[in-house]
Amino acid sequence: MDTKDLPSVDQLSIEELTAKLEPDLLPKHIAIIMDGNGRWAEMQHLSRVAGHQEGIKSVREMITVCLELGINALTIYAFSQENWNRPVQEISSLMGLLEYYLSTERAKLIEQGVRLRTIGRLDSLPASALQWVRTAEQETSHLDRLHLTVALSYGGRAEIVDAVRELLHEAQDGNLRPDDVDESRIQQYLYTHELPDPDLLIRTSGETRISNFLLWQLAYTELYFTPTLWPDFRRRELLLALLEYQRRERRFGRVLSTVST
Fold first, then answer.
1. What is the DSSP letter of 196?
2. Contact, 53 vs 66, CB < 8 A?
3. Residues 204, 226: contact at Cβ < 8 Å?
4. Is the Cβ–Cβ distance between 58 and 34 less than 8 Å?
5. d(CA 125, CA 121)
6. Which residues contact 130 (CB under 8 A, 6 or more apart)?
7. DSSP of 86-106, one letter per residue?
8. Which of 2, 10, 35, 182 is catalytic?
9. For residues 85 and 159, is the Cβ–Cβ distance under 8 A?
10. Which of 24, 83, 144, 197 is flagged as catalytic?
11. What is the pLDDT of residue 261?
12. Taking the complete model, does pTM exceed 0.85, yes or no?
């Protein structure tokens, strides 16, 4: 059969896409910039908050697929430091949505074996939202089937600043010399120090930038950009991203001959 007669991956069913995955080549850690909720809502003639509500269904789907495929870590960009500049009413609605998600999904996360962590300058969150976050973290702290990390009031530059501050405190206490500072020492103070760096970053909605997300951790991460808006990004779209990832050759700065030997 001529290869031009073969169906493209876009024409394959979900079952066929799943069958093409190679378990040994799956990423261990996926990070996602969930973009396009507002645009999706506008296209549906709905409020922006309705777009975020629909986006929660995509989060659920990502968790389910990661669990089924044995992907151990999922990090999602839920609310950036810059998002505090949005209209007050929208911020209030988003914080209410966060509380609703944690109150309604906690039991399901526990049932699925999902550990929830949050990263960012969480003291900026309203007291009620912060309490829900801390409760969910505590109740899932013993679980390890999937490490779900939610970036809230997060900024990549702020994370590095906070790490440097911790290093300076160590130096001030006499426990750190300049020659002691290397990449591994800095990494100890990053919000994500318990996790491996992401293997794959997905950004939805057609934007092709990382928007101050995981600046340190994404140094060698494979980037995947899709025009699909976040509320429409479900199982099929994730499978397509994973298949694209499996076609990439990750060299981490080495030449091909070095990798293959």
1. P
2. no
3. yes
4. yes
5. 8
6. 122, 123
7. S-HHHHHHHHHHHHHHHHHHH
8. 35
9. no
10. 83
11. 45
12. yes
What the block records as the tokens of 246 is: 């499996």
Closest to 27 measured CA to CA, from 59, 62, 61, 58: 62
Find residue 202's DSSP bridge partners.
32, 224
Structure tokens that stand for 131 in this block: 């309490």
Q: Is 83 a catalytic residue?
A: yes
Q: Residue with structure tokens 């809502």?
A: 41
The two tokens of residue 42 are 């506008």
Cβ contacts of 170 within 8 Å, gap of 6 or more: 176
Report the alpha-carbon distance of residue 181 to residue 241 in Å, rounded: 37
Tokens found for residue 190: 């990053």
Q: Is 35 a catalytic residue?
A: yes
**Residue 223: strand pairing partners:** 201
DSSP helix, strand, coil percent of the chain (3-state; round to 5): 50, 15, 35
208: number of Cβ within 10 Å? 7
pLDDT, averaged in runs of 10, over the chain (261 residues)? 57 95 97 97 94 96 98 97 93 94 94 98 96 97 98 98 96 92 96 97 97 98 98 98 93 60 45
**Residue type for 225, please?**
F
25-155+198-246 has CATH 3.40.1190.10 classification = no
* CA neighbours closer than 13 Å in the CB half-sphere of residue 94: 21
